[in-house]
Amino acid sequence: MPSAQRAAGRAVEQDPQLAEAHRVLGVVLHYSYDPWGAERELRRALRLRPDLAEARAWFAYNVLAIAFGRFDEAIEEVSKARRADPLSGSAASYQGFVLSTAGRHAAAVEAALEGAELDPDSTLAHLALMNTYLGAGRVAEAVVIGLGALRTVGRPPFLSAMAAFSAMFTQPFLVEQSKQLDSAERQKLFGFMVQNGRRVYAPALLVTGLLGFGLAGMSGTPPTGDLFYSMSDTWLVIAFVCWIAMNGVLHGVITPAEKAMAAGDQSAEGRISAGGGAISILLVVMLWLMIFKPFL
């Protein structure tokens, strides 16, 4: 990532009026855990090219909504993106993400449905639709969308797993970097982490299991319908136990600890690290089971 940041920075130096260079630098800074720099560069890109609808929608969701929790601004920016390109499926999908994160679930589902209609083969559209259904508490419909996505994007459990486990890789960096903030800002950051866990990571972990084990249970071979796997297979039973344990650690350890940190209890940081470590170990075990399928 440092090399990408240097390359993007050189592109900006060579042509400060090139909107695409500022956009790329903004994205790189976002993934380098510098949301302030990301906002600066993306706003410069959008001032130079107000018609960059997808970039504006991406900025609204990933930076304004997720990184900062500035939902009103995020909704305004993603609405601008929709007006700039009404036929953009990605802008509609990002609008669904933004509205869902802001708690406007009915409108989020409507936007995500439009995104899927505009771009039915898009991975982003299916992920947005699953996410918004989950936010609205419509778990059964989220599972149906995930299973139906097999015909287009191939592996919906992989999509939901990306959403579920992304925090495992990003939050340790956020916890460490939060030490550079003052007490009030640090508590606010942990408040956002709690919101993201409730609205994104926890539902995505639930759907990952439902889709993954559901597909294993329907793994028939036409025309006989004989199953490749059975839910009574030892490796699947162990994987199921690991998934249940992950949900237990998330809801019983990590989420309460994040709430405590948001309330100012600095001693809860150790519980967050321990919970993250436990989920990491369980994930490694599940991956080993899925790859090697022992006891089969």
Brief descriptors of the model:
Serine Threonine Protein Phosphatase 5, Tetratricopeptide repeat, two-stranded antiparallel sheet, mainly alpha
Write down how many β-strands occur, each being a DSSP E stretch of 2 or more residues.
Answer: 2
What proportion of the residues is helical, as a percent range?
A: over 70%
Mean pLDDT: 81
Q: Beta-strand level of the residues, as a percent range?
A: under 5%
Summary, kept brief:
With 296 residues, the chain is mainly alpha-helical. The protein contains 13 helices and two strands, in the order αααααααααααββαα. A two-stranded antiparallel ribbon has the order 1-2.
Summarize the helices and strands and which ones pair or pack:
Blueprint: H1 2-14, H2 19-31, H3 35-48, H4 53-67, H5 71-84, H6 89-101, H7 105-118, H8 123-135, H9 139-148, H10 156-177, H11 183-217, E1 220-221, E2 226-227, H12 234-262, H13 269-292
Describe this structure in words.
- The protein has about 300 residues and is an all-alpha fold.
- It folds into 3 domains: about 1-50, no CATH class; about 70-155, Tetratricopeptide repeat domain (Serine Threonine Protein Phosphatase 5, Tetratricopeptide repeat, Alpha Horseshoe); about 155-295.
- It has helices at about 1-15, 20-30, 35-50, 55-65, 70-85, 90-100, 105-120, 125-135, 140-150, 155-175, 185-215, 235-260, 270-290; strands at about 220, 225.
- β1 and β2 (about 225) form a beta hairpin.
- The longest helix is centred in the last third of the chain and has 35 residues, at about 185-215.
- The radius of gyration is 20 Å and the shape is globular.
- The protein starts with a helix and ends with a helix.
- About 40% of the residues are buried.
- Mean pLDDT is about 80; it is low at about 220-225.
